[in-house]
Amino acid sequence: MAIWSKLFTLGRAGANEAATAVVDRNALRILDQEIRDADKAQGKARDDLAGLVARRRILETEVESYRAQAAKYESSARMAMDKGDMDLARQVAQRVADLEQDIAMKAPQIEDMRAAEDQIHKAVAATDRKIEQLRREVEVVKVNESVQKAQSTVAAAGAGSSLGSAAESLARIRERQAIRGEKIRAAGELEDRRTGADLDEKLRLAGITPGHSSADDVLARLSPPKPTLQIEQRDDTSRDA
Question: What's the CATH class of domain 2-159?
Answer without folding.
Answer: mainly alpha
